[in-house]
Fold this protein.
Amino acid sequence: MSSERTYHHGDLRRAVLTAALDVIAADGPDALSLRDLARRAGVSHAAPAHHFKDRTGLLTAVAAEGYALFADALAEAPGLQERGVAYVRFAVDRPAHFQVMFRPELHRADDPTLIAAKARATEELRAGVSGLPEAARGEDARLTGVAAWSLAHGFATLLLSGNLSDALEGRTPEEAFRAAAGLVFRPGPPDS
């Protein structure tokens, strides 16, 4: 009976991804082991390899899922500042995805699903910059995008590592990010 349980699982792929996200959130991506994840999912140690091939394949799936969810979160936010808030909220709500997404050495850069999800997220980030008035965008919209990305990513990373607790001063991360972004990205004069 138990051998059947080890070979038949309702949604093994999702179960392994969920277990992986739990491990990453608790101990980081370096703590992942397919054998341990199989044990957690109640399947044979070889079963996860059918869906992910290896540890890198699993981390690639985590990154691709993360970028897709990230793009959805950004798409729902109006304007550059609120996209930055969505960025920070995503990092807080999905720290395991966030950790893996931005460590390219952990996943396969040539994976088509990852490439598509990453491109969609990039477009959503760029849409926030393109929505700025020309005076606020500056002469180099791409560099403005890098500055906005750096601010949101840096804020999120510092927040997740516990380095902003004093700076929050009782504010939510979203409120604190809005205040910080307002200092850096002040609206320019209206376009003529």
